[in-house]
Amino acid sequence: MRSLILLALVGLAAQLVDGSLGMAYGVTSTTLLLAIGANPAAASATVHLAEIGTTLASGASHWRFKNVDWKVVARIGIPGAIGAFAGATFLSWLSTEIAKPLMSVLLLGLGVYVLIRFTVRGLRTDRLGQPLRKRFLTPLGLVAGFMDATGGGGWGPVGTPAILASGRLEPRKVVGSIDTSEFFVAIAASAGFLLGLGTAGIDPAWALALLIGGLIAAPIAAWLVRLVPPRVLGSAVGGVIVVTNARTLLSLDSLGLGGGVITTVLALLVLGWIAAVVHSLREHRRAVAEARDEAPEPEEAPALAG
């Protein structure tokens, strides 16, 4: 029961982050399942089963708050589903000994990308309003869908920064469109896992716990996307993913590292993570202050005669 409550809380927290940042539900949830000993393919399958419900609720909530661009959803969701089905089938064929370190490497790479992307570069907004083309969204959807299924998460970490980096869609609509299109990815990935694995290793109670937490958080996250600074949240989430998966890789028996070495490396990573969050917070405050200084002052009302 304690583990189910923990999973529900993780699902809630992950959906809060995912719904406000457009990434990290799958990566965060899969990382936890791997940490408690789940089979990599079964962990990804469990998360994607839960995501069918959470992405549907998240998409509906974002639609209600007008955070969705339906053209983007259609152009990236369909190729994303194709890539996810292929990735799920591929992961189902791998042995556990190969899949676990492979998934940790993928998750670590995604975490590093998210951390650096939001800490160093922030967001680009000088191209807002320009259309996003199929020749950009189609390959992006295929790659992001494949990464999502094989890494247990990746749709948001790949898709959201790529569209944000284009600067052609306002951040809240990027997040809403990515979260909504992920519904198709979750269905396709689940179908691929069920075809490759059957129900072996998939715990329905775990999926239900993640789903309940995600359903509670979905409408809150859709509202928070207008308020939470994406740069700060991106640095925080990226750091969590990096530290957790670095610990998994450093603990592999094949590396033969001692406890002191592992602790030292993890401590350095945590310090770097804290520095990244502090830097992002300072840069966000600086950007807000500059925008306030550049805003034109309101004209004074003329004095009333008499």
Chain-averaged pLDDT = 76
DSSP strand tally: 0
Give the ordered list of helices and strands: HHHHHHHHHHH
Major sheet size, sense and barrel closure: none
Structural Rg: 20 Å
Indicate the percent of residues in helices: over 70%
Number of helices, counting only DSSP H or I runs of 4 residues or more: 11
- Low-pLDDT windows of residues: none
> Quick one: overall form?
globular
Quaternary state reads: single chain
State the end-to-end CA separation.
76 Å
Q: What structural category do the secondary elements indicate?
A: mainly alpha
Query: How much of the polypeptide forms β-strand, as a percent range?
Result: under 5%
The number of domains: 1
Subcellular location: Cell membrane; Membrane
Family: Belongs to the 4-toluene sulfonate uptake permease (TSUP) (TC 2.A.102) family.
Organism: Brachybacterium phenoliresistens
InterPro entries: TM_pro_TauE-like (IPR002781), TSUP/Inactive_protease-like (IPR051598)
What does this protein structure show overall?
It comes from Brachybacterium phenoliresistens. The chain crosses the membrane at residues 72-95, 101-120, 183-200, 206-225, 232-250, 256-278. It is found in: Cell membrane; Membrane. With 306 residues, the protein is mostly helical. It has one domain. It is 79% helix and 0% strand. The chain has eleven helices and no strands. It has helices at residues 2-21, 25-35, 40-64, 70-93, 96-121, 134-151, 155-166, 171-197, 204-224, 230-250, 259-294. It is globular, with a radius of gyration of 20 Å. The relative contact order is 0.20. The model has no long low-confidence stretch (mean pLDDT 76).
